[in-house]
Amino acid sequence: MAIQWPLVLFSLLAGAGGAMLAFAGLSQLLGGSRTVRRRAVWCALALFVIGGLCSVAHLASPLNAISAVTNLLSFSGISIELMLLGASFIAGAAYLVLTREEGRDGAVRVVAVLAVIFGVAIGFFCGHGYVIDAQPTWGTETLPLAYLGTSLALGAFAYALVAAATKTPADKAASAEELGGKLWPAVLVCAVVDAVGILAYGLFLGLDAVAAQGVLFWGGAVACGVVGVLACAIAGMTALAAKAPAALAVAGVACAAIGGVALRMLMWACATGYLNLFSHGIPSVMLNL
Amino acid sequence: MTKGTISRRGFMKAAAATGAALTAAGSIPLLETTDQAFAAGSVERVMHKTACHGCTNCCPVRVYTEDGRVVKIEGDPDGPLNKGGVCLKCLSQIQTVYSPRHVLHPMKRVGERGENKWEAISWDEAVDLAGEQIATAVKKYGPYAYWSARGGGGAYIEWETSGLDYTFGGCNSLASGACQCAMPRDFVSTTSVGFNCCVDMDNVDRWVGITDNAELDGTRRDDTERVFVLWGSQPHSSKAAHGGHGLTDARSNLGVKTIVVDPYMTAEAAKADVWLPVRPGSDCALMLSWIHHIIENDLYDEQFVKHWTNLPFLINPDTRLAYRAEEVWPDYVNPAADPAGVYDTPAYVCFDAKTNSVQPFPFTVPEDCAVDPVIFATATVNGKEAKTAGQIYKEEAEPWTLEAAGETCWLDPERIREAIELYANADFGGLSNGVFSDHQENSSTAPLGALAIDALLGHVESPCSAFQNHGAASRTADRPTQRLGVFSSTFERYGLGWTTGLTKAENDRLLDAIVADWDAKGRDGKEMQRYFFQSRCDTMGANEHKGIHQWQTCAPKELRQAITTGEPYRPRVMYEMSGNKYAVMGPSLEWKKAYDEQDFVIQQYPNMTSFTVQTVDLFLPTTEWLEYDSYEAPGTHFNRHYARCQVTHLGETVNPFVSPYQVAASAVEKLGAENVFDPDAYKVPFFESLEAARAAWAEQMGKGSWQEMLDDIDHRFTEEPIDDYMAYYQYKEPVSDGLPRGFATMSRKVDVYSEAMLRLARTGFPYMYPFDQPACDDYDPICTFKEPTESPVEGQPGYDPEYPLVITTGRLPHFHHGTMRHAPFIREVMPAPELKINPETAAEYGIEHLDWVKITSRRGSSNARAYLTQGIAPGVLITERFWNPECFDETQETITPGIEECGYNIMSADEFQNPCFATNSYRAFTVKIEKTERPERIWIESEQFQPFMPTLSGEPVTEEVF
Amino acid sequence: MRKGLLINLDRCSGCDSCIVACKLENDLPLGHFYNKVIAVGPTGTFPNVEKYWLPSQCQQCENPACVHVCPTAASYRDPKTGMVLIDKEKCIGCQYCIYACPYGVRQFNEDAGVVQKCTLCAQITADGDGVPACVHNCNCGARFFGDYDDPESDVSRELAKYPEEAIHTLPDPNNAKPLTRYILSPKFASWKELV
User: Fold this and answer.
1) How confident is the model over A199-209, as pLDDT tens digits?
2) What is the pTM of this model?
3) Which domains does chain C have, with CATH numbers?
4) Which of B115, B278, B838, C52 can pair with B874 through a Cys bridge, CB separation 3.0 to 4.6 Å?
5) Smallest CA–CA distance from C51 into chain B, residue
6) 4Fe-4S Mo/W bis-MGD-type domain: which residues (chain B) (predicted)?
7) Burial profile B115-127: b = 16 or more Cβ within 10 angstroms, e = fewer
8) Is A271 close to C99, i.e. CB distance below 8 A?
9) Which chain B residues have a beta carbon less than 8 Å from that of A285?
């Protein structure tokens, strides 16, 4: 099937935005810099908007997005994505509003919990909409797991980048203090989910199928998305994290982005349909049955 | 430009004066006049009824218009065979009638041939120019300088060209069909069974219709076993909604079994009970094996063969003709002789089992027969060893055991046995001899073999038989007669030709009366008769290939060579009425040279093709079938004959039966009526105006007027009562002489042994009577097998390892001959020719599914897309035979004939032919193949066919020009 | 009521007439199809082979996946007739129904921005009288249209002529319940699952 670029970008950007939001929520709960969190949430909101615009580009007409919104209660895959996108956006916006000034801790904590939940869920459900019987190569929960993993990895490194770019009052990178000092372990957890998701989906597709898309799978998804992401995350557990947090985060973002895009491209490229009768061109004939 | 009633004949003069060159892609400027009736009012959908003319089947259809514009075509559910079904050719007329290729005004070439530059001219100017060119050539070079071409394309005009030819005394009319379609089978059935029957026209429809309609409730009335043999016959392609529908009904509703003999797994073969994928060109060997097996195993219908065929007749070894009783017993009195001397029922000679002696064998009721004729016997007659015709056949078939046929035909002998026994043991059966044989060297011998099989089994005028007489006309009161060459009226017009079934005295009387009629009109009747005879002798190839007289055509190869060499004379001005000749005539590159030699080429056709661009000097636009009225043949569906009734009319298109009249009248005027052979000849088949044509057709339909016929919208057809239509065993019914009717043949029986072939070769009988045409070598009177001249079999003289593969062709439901290549929705599902090839063979050449393949014969090369299939034997290829891609539009700087890209007939051969019918080798020759790339100008993607999409649907509905 | 098509493959000769009839009736441009005819085979090895044609279009599922995934209810199953249709006014062109259709018989119309598929010629059949163009014009009388719940309908009567082993549906991986039935008698060819 043709690669649907708007959907590739939407699911990755929105998922990554969700992950950043979730990290911000965790930071709120575990401790960290308010500035980092607010900057990250701003970034997440921006990703939601860009991602949302991408998804609109998939529709025949941008105005059709209104129809999609007005039919939210259909609980189709798309409406769940839309609901989560909206919920995440509202959580992020609420967080920004509530944290304009100090205080309101109770409300902020509630919002932070919601941000974690929505932020993780959106990454998963952007992939879950594709789990349909008519597409045998999508009919697996490893697919949304891979969507979630790649989203988390990208969002995690992006959060680490924001943290690295934000100076503490001591004029040091804020990274070390984020998530109560557990930023890099959290990034590593995300990287592991990412690696597990990608490899699990690859295993589901089977070696023959992924071999047919060798560059996408081995190069994009595995080399960058798994090995690169894991390498950056593990490096974050070393002294490098303190020495060059920004460089590490940039490398991680790059690997995770490539891996995330490659994984999604792979999904479209491997889509066969169940009995894709109109895929037979001219002359329409099924040989070698 | 003013709106209103402008005379169409004069209108385009104004447009032409602007001198605008008109290209094919950009259609000619629209007329601005509007038919007021259609211009006013709200959009109301009006239903019309007519019959398609996309092929020879003419399925009844319902057509809907809105504001005069055709918006929908659908099959008429009242159609007795199609029952509402119509094929994609018919449906696509809605695109082709409004196609940018549909020409609406006469066009005169203004650039060089091939440049596609045209000037629109008025019909007056066009008719004048055509007449001038013909008259000039006839004046300067004589009447043979003019020739015509017909058939094969849209098939609107067939034998009628002869009326035009003999106006001037011309004698060459090239039928794309005839030699290569139906004429050989027509000759065999007409001379051997006495009528042109289904076997001649691939018309499974009729016999399938019979089985179906005899059991109208759709269930079988008895448990008889009924079996059809489809031998190289493809009703699902050639008549998809017609015979194809009938065959389906027979198979599915009535449990009729089928045997399919075809090299490729056609739609028919896919549904067959037994499929025999015969090697192309080896059919006669297979037929002889059937004949051998039927005789050896006593599977034949002994009573039928004894009394209703000429197989028991003893044959004179010197003349190869059956002995007449009078030759052996000079005083013999034939009890069947007509005392009035009008009808001829000869008595023959047989070997009688009752007396164990040679005895006279007169025509009698079988029960009253004094002798018990032995079918297979050798006896002494007049002191010579003579064999019966049956014995001659038996000996010819003797070598063709199942094993021998299996080896020669590349078949499993056991499967051959299965097929023969299924057929021979059926209660009722019929064999459809498809068009396959009309495309190869066996065009005369294969129909004889098919006839022999059915005659041996008694499948003649029996339920399911292909040899079926229909209608009241065949149920004659007297001994039935048959005049050959009736496809053209000219033999009769000039007093030439023998009527079978009449005595010599009666024949002479009839011919003398014709001569006397001419004398009475102030012409020299004898001289006209002699001129006509001489011109038939002078017709290209007429001496070697006398079978061409059957449809009054000429031999293609001899015509082609005469044009290019000037020997014995050069035809120079061509009036073409059939479409893209590059597609339908082979070898087409050689033909291109011949067309290039022409002084002037007039073409009448509804749409322009690559042939128009390359070759035509003056184009006369004729009607598409939605603009067409007619009651001419074809148009039969079971017991009905449908009229075709105009639904719309665009621009200045003219009914194809009218334009030749106008051209001929113009030429006669220029030459002077006193200077042409027969100044009225063209008035017989053609009409001065559409009104005149309608009046004539209405009369044929038994209606007071065409309008009266139209008014009864649900009965735009004539109908044969069902009881007359389905009268079996008509040969057994008694007639005026107290004898059974028999058959309209020389013997009044089925002439399985074809004396007609021998007489034809020796004197041109029956066409040339009372004259003798110079003799040529005898044509085989029975089915014989000859290995094709180009053979794929190692060790055969025609084997050449450079060309190891044998190729054949078949039909598709998508196209009729060269037509409809400009229908966009057809082309998007069949964009390019497919070369069906066994994967094993393809692998030898490194060819994969849908690779392009260059196919090369000794004549030339063209291209097709490989279609890998297990439905064909290794070493055998099949493709559709009439490709003309027509892939040109204004984006191309030049326009090619298209055939070098995709054109099967570049490869076909005319250097080896059937001797009797001049049938070229369109099948069963050898080729080599190699992988190649898609030819540059060939479109294969849907969107590429955009230049074919309709552009004329906004055209106003116009009135007739003539 | 369950209105749909029945296609008798014993009768189908693969002539492609239904494709063109459909395109003309529904005014589909080049490259667009509501139906296609697929040659299945020949299977086996020459000369022991078999072949049939599979005319393919929307299978009129009773539990249609396309309807379930549609975010705007543009794809719907008419409760009265059982016909699965697309309301083009509602379709936003998200194409999820294309991904969700197990048979791949929907197409995206780029120009109109909506998904399209066989409508059973609703413009003809809506009033309960007519039959789709592909049925009307079928050369061999292989296509039937009608209500599977009505024993007197064309589809029910044709089905009744055949034994169970000759009646097939396309494989149904997840209970989509395709309504369209295909008749193929074993004497002509064995039914292939195609998956």
Assistant:
1) 999 999 999 98
2) 0.94
3) 3-183 (3.30.70.20)
4) B838
5) B270
6) 45-101
7) ebbbbbbbbbbbb
8) yes
9) 867
